Amino acid sequence: MIQFFDSGMSPIIVLGISAFLSAGFSFWLSNRVLAAITVAAMLLSFVLLTLILFNIIPLNQTYYAALQENTFAVIFQYIFLAVGFIAALSAVKYISEDRNQGEFYSLLTLSVVGMMLVAAAIDLLTIFVGLALTALAGASITAFRKKDRTASEAAMKFYIISALSAGLALYGISLLYGLTHTLNLQGINASLSGMNTSSPEFPTALLAIALIVAGFGFEIALVPFHMWAPDVYEGSPTPVSGLLTSGSKKVGFAALFKVFIIALFVFKADWGPLFGVLAILTMTVGNVVALRQENVKRMLAYSSIGQAGYMLISFPVFSASISSGNFTQLSYLSISYGIFQILTHSIATVGAFAVVAAMSTSVLGLEYEDFKGLFKKSRTLAISMTLFLFSLLGIPLLAGFDSKLLIFSAAVGGSLVSGYGWLIWLAIFGIINSAVSLIYYVRLVRNMFMDTEPHFNSTVPRSAMAGIVIAAAATILIGVYPGPFISICNQAAHALLAGA
Fold it and tell me: H or E element: which one contains 68?
């Protein structure tokens, strides 16, 4: 028992046991007990991750040359656990009338397990297995309500896209294996380090990069691989939508960091400009199309696509920072600020979907009009939703302001590197797109504070309200005291680059 809790894999093991308990004992345990098991397991995992972060449980443990629990892994696992925890709290009331709730909590937990495996993975096969587990569990709970045709359609789209992205990524991985004869990330980097443009294997390596970008691009919903996301998020049960946009998409970024910063480090001059173009396309298309949405879940989906463009800025800035061949301060900051942007966006987005889930129990459709007068019925919901939207917008004293300021500053810093002046356009487009997002965020806030009879007339369950308040408090705390969180993200960046 002592050896178990001294293992860096203990948080993942606890969640895995919880998933099997929820499914195996669903016929004998009440729905309330099933929810309690899931929440308790996630809280225990939080505690274990904290012990790992402070090195009480030893950091940097490696398991079977496939997993390593370092600071980078711990930070992303914190994010995934927080998202899963709030989604679970939101789901308690939302699925209270549904059957097979044990399977729901089991699949939700397994989805988080898959995300945590990717965060700790140090070889391509483990990354693929973690992504596959996340996608399969996510598609299953998307179709949880079997008689809901919209949910079934969303699940089918999600499953097909997941299979397509997995196929593309796996083909790219197989090409890399053929070139390097290893799946270990550092081993791939070492094997490719001598390759140049005149090498006969160079075109094959570029093809592998293109396939992996496309495969992960579908996972993250980058433009032009994004068209599935709004339909899936709209059709999914709302707590699941929060899990997908705040968790499943971010696991794709964890994989991107590991594969491109470590395994494909030698090709930084090739993938840096590619990610720069994708960043501009993604942030622009996501925010512009969000302007036209009437359904709030679709608006949040396109907003999330736009936010993914901001997160991508880390990659071209990192590429510029090591143009001299050595790591610089900007190298670490570009990764750190990208992780910080992922953290702040995940909390605000899962909180926003938790508010939508709380309202979904009495209001169907969830159009902008359904939010009119919400402040009169529930001040907590209205204020919390305002905080989440303003954080996504980048209003000062909220978490999103600090993360946007830092990631745009990194782009400006990268533009000062000789030959990389074009990076300034990433900051310019980021600021313009943030201004565009003001329109659709403020429109929803205005509706919530209208002096009109509210559409929403139900009482918010305590579990859902607890999740919303936790997310709102975290949004304020990170915004007011960003220093400790940025410091931890810096540690995560150093841990990642230690393997490059």
Answer: strand 67-69
Range list of β-strands (E), 132-265:
none
Name residue, tokens 């606890």: 14
CA-CA distance, 132 to 107, in Å (whole number)? 13
Rounded to whole angstroms, how far apart are CA atoms 386 and 392?
10
Least confident stretch, 91-95, 165-169, 215-219, 415-419 = 91-95
Q: How far apart are CA 456 and CA 207, in angstroms?
A: 52
What is d(CA 349, CA 407) in angstroms, rounded to the nearest whole number?
18
Q: Count Cβ atoms below 10 Å from residue 454 Cβ, excluding itself.
A: 19
Return d(Cα 193, Cα 53) in angstroms, integer.
32
Give me the amino acid identity at 305: I
What the block records as the tokens of 364 is: 């169907």
**Residue entry with tokens 């007339």:** 457
Helix axes 329-360 and 314-321, enclosed angle (nearest 10): 170
Contact of 380 with 347, CB cutoff 8 Å:
no
Which residue type is seen at 179? Answer: L
Count of other CB atoms within 10 angstroms of residue 155: 24
Per-residue CA distances from 77 to 179, 202, 260, 463 (Å) = 31, 35, 20, 22
The alpha carbons of the chain give a radius of gyration, in whole angstroms, of 21
Consecutive H or E run containing 21: helix 10-24
Angle at 245 between CA 14 and CA 305, to 5 degrees: 150
- Please report where in the chains the tokens 């919400």 appear, as a residue: 374
Percent of the chain with pLDDT over 70: 95
Instruction: For residue range 309-330, list pLDDT tens digits in order.
Output: 999 999 999 999 887 667 888 9
Residue 121's DSSP bridge partners are: 67
Mean pLDDT throughout 83-90?
A: 90
* pLDDT at residue 1 in the model: 47
DSSP 8-state secondary structure symbol assigned to residue 63? E
Rounded to whole angstroms, how far apart are CA atoms 340 and 225?
A: 24
251, containing H or E segment:
helix 249-256
- Residues 150-185 have pLDDT tens digits of 878 888 888 888 888 888 999 999 999 999 989 999
Q: Is 398 left (phi over 0), alpha (psi -120 to 50) or beta?
A: beta
CA pair distance 346, 352, nearest whole angstrom: 10
Q: Give the DSSP letter string of 123-155.
A: BHHHHHHHHHHHHHHHHHHHT-STT-HHHHHHH
Distance from C-alpha of 332 to C-alpha of 327, rounded to nearest angstrom: 8
Residue 361 pLDDT > 70, yes or no? Answer: no
Whole-angstrom distance, CA of residue 263 vs CA of residue 318: 15
pLDDT of residue 96: 67
